[in-house]
Amino acid sequence: MFERELPNGTSGLFVVDADGSDLRQLTPPEDYAEHPRWSPDGRTIIYNIEFADDLDDPRNGIWTVQAAGGT
Predict the structure, then answer these.
(1) Strands (DSSP E) along 1-71, which ranges?
(2) What is the percent of the chain with per-residue pLDDT over 70, rounded to a whole number?
(3) Residue 46's pLDDT band (boundaries 50, 70, 90)?
(4) Whole-angstrom Cα distance, residue 3 to residue 21?
């Protein structure tokens, strides 16, 4: 799992198989996903979103996503 800046200026969370294949983006492309961490069981990733130019944005905060993908 890693964080990567996207062409639109945001950042997203991605996972990839150990052999480098099957790159999958886990977070929406319009988010500013940062500081990802695995859950102890390896099934969930916790991360935060901070829209620095709009601190009142309701998407700001701590989020989770299933490591296998999903909402």
Answers:
(1) 2-5, 11-15, 24-25, 33-38, 44-49, 61-66
(2) 94
(3) very high
(4) 17
* Burial 4-18, CB ≥16 within 10 A → b, else e: eeeeeebbbbbbeee
Adjacency order of strands within the sheet including 61-66: 33-38, 44-49, 61-66
Q: What residues contact residue 10 under an 8 Å CB cut-off, 6+ apart? A: 29, 30, 31, 32, 33
Q: CA–CA separation, 21 vs 18, rounded Å?
A: 7
Nearest to 70 by CA among 35, 38, 7, 24: 24
Q: Residue 25: is it exposed, middle or buried by C-beta count within 10 angstroms (0-12/13-18/19+)?
A: middle
Give the model confidence (pLDDT) of 21-38 as tens digits.
998 888 887 778 889 999
